[in-house]
Amino acid sequence: MGDQKELRFSGTGGQGLILAGIIMADAAIRDGRNSIQYQSYGPEARGGASRAEVIIGDEEIDYPKVSNPDVLLVMSQEACDKFACDLAKGGVIIVDSTYVQKLPELNGRVYKLPISQTARDEVGREMVANVVALGAVVRITGVVSKDVLLEALLARIPKGTEDMNCKALKLGWELAEP
Amino acid sequence: MSRVIELAQLMQGNEAAAEGALAAGVRFFAGYPITPSTEVAEIMAERLPRLGGKFIQMEDEIASMAAIIGASLVGVKSITATSGPGFSLMQENIGFAAMAEVPCVIVNVQRSGPSTGMPTAPAQGDIMQARWGTHGDYPIIALCPSSVREAYDLALRAVNLAEKYRVPVVLLMDEVVGHLRERVVLPPLDELEIVNRREPIETPANYKAYRADETGVPPMANFGIGYRYHVTGLAHDEKGAPTNDPATAEGLLLRLHDKLQRNLDDIIIENSRSLDDAEVVVLAYGATARSARHAVKKARQENIKAGLYQPLSLWPFPAASVDRLAEQAHTIVVPEMNLGQYRIEVERTVRGRAEVVGVNRANGELLSPDEIMQAILEVVNK
């Protein structure tokens, strides 16, 4: 209860959204806070709609599901069509403009950023779009500090991919520059 | 940073169950991977060889259950993990473990059923199966966590109870708790209470494998150290020899029950919240207990005298506690991700002294706090 922050990362299976959720929840713990990460998924692996949910707070977290996210990341048109209307009043929606063209009227702060495009063009691997997104989400929302985000990222990625991921995080951070 | 923050980590429920079992001394896993329990097998495959243990992926769940019984008989603490369809296949050998008194732990991460159902969706549909899944009047213990920390603690406890009472123990999780990741601070390993099976003091020549002393639990000789005895699912005498003698068969069955019944204080474990003055009690377990806890908090904010009772051990049934609730509360609300399996047992114990109301869902979705709150409001406004 109290000052819980609820986040939902949504897109397509294979975009690494569950890993992004795990990194976010891990970062919050490193920040000395409480957090929980849960996801609903169907039997499909790659290509189907995917979402990861994270709740960050300072008290006991009871119900692990998010109904009206304060922070919503959408990385596919399908996810946008499905979840944009769930956004909490005055919430933040971060849209990957690489894949999302149509956005409904929303009562919140909207950020349209070319997340996947940036990963593809500047890192050469679209695979790291989830990390670009994390950089942007954290800069816009300040939900965790930049230092712990980097710590959590390095703890959760495969050895040998550190440089690529650090670059992606930095690009995301810069992409969200006000 | 404080020590607590340093030790805090993000962990998944299935991972915690595996780690709790390893901390209890489990060194053998046999299983057949199935959603949503697969992470338990994955972690065991990774961790056991490094600890000098063995992981084996069997051809199916019938063989998996047989393999952990065999491993346990030679003295290795053993576990398997599965979900509904696999749990069904394991039932025959679970009965064997109960009858032959072989310590073992079965993790069942419940998913939506019947049959293959919805493999990735949560449910609590195996409550009665955990109690009565195999045939005959057998005793069993089932534990049910609602959080990642509880998954760790109850996995450890499941192994301890199996060893202490020579009984199969079911760790009855659900998909939500199995796949949930949350912040945990685990207890230091050197502070854990680890129970090992009692070994015989007699020489092999004088040993009777099923002769119980005052505890009701016969000391167990591990195979391979010189004690030779017969292990069977048939009714048997103190030496383990099959028998059709009515008195011997009945004596055995009564002892199997008695060894748990006389130790209920040691076996039964429960949590509560705001229960002292509660007039409406929500009785909930597993992931549903999290939603129930939230509903109780909301009700208290609205000055409704609601409380939560959470059995952490579902079987044996906590009859003494539910008896007290029946005297204290005017209504007991029982939310479950099934059509009312545990509620039947609550009603049987309450015997009309309080109203018992079910809140039920069997559609693969976790019950929400609002749905439980709604039930509380309906009771209060009646």
Report on the architecture of this protein.
- The complex is a heterodimer of chains A (178) and B (382).
- Helix content of chain A is 38%, strand content 21%.
- By secondary structure, chain A is of the alpha/beta class.
- Chain A has one domain: Pyruvate-ferredoxin Oxidoreductase, domain 3.
- Chain A has a six-stranded mixed β-sheet, sandwiched between helices.
- In chain A, α1 packs across α5, α3 crosses α6 and α4 packs across α6.
- Chain A is globular.
- Chain B has two domains: 189 residues, Rossmann fold (3-Layer(aba) Sandwich), CATH 3.40.50; 109 residues, 3-Layer(aba) Sandwich (Rossmann fold).
- The longest helix of chain B has 18 residues.
- The mean pLDDT of chain B is 97.
- The chains are: A alpha/beta (178), B alpha/beta (382).
- The interface between A and B is medium-sized, with 24 and 23 residues.
Per-chain topology:
The complex is a heterodimer of chains A (178) and B (382).
Chain A: E1 5-12, H1 17-30, E2 34-38, E3 49-57, E4 71-74, H2 77-83, E5 91-96, E6 108-113, H3 115-123, H4 129-141, H5 146-156, H6 162-175
Parallel strand pairs in A: 1-4, 4-5, 5-6
Antiparallel strand pairs in A: 1-3, 2-3
Helix pairs in contact in A: 1-4, 1-5, 3-4, 3-6, 4-6
Chain B: H1 3-7, E1 9-12, H2 13-23, E2 28-31, H3 38-47, E3 54-57, H4 61-73, E4 78-82, H5 84-100, E5 104-112, E6 118-122, H6 127-132, E7 141-143, H7 148-165, E8 168-174, H8 175-179, E9 181-184, H9 246-261, H10 264-267, E10 270-273, E11 280-283, H11 287-301, E12 306-311, E13 313-315, H12 319-328, E14 331-336, H13 341-350, E15 355-360, H14 369-380
Parallel strand pairs in B: 2-3, 2-4, 4-5, 5-8, 7-8, 11-12, 11-14, 14-15
Antiparallel strand pairs in B: 1-9, 5-6, 7-13, 10-12
Helix pairs in contact in B: 2-3, 2-7, 4-5, 11-14
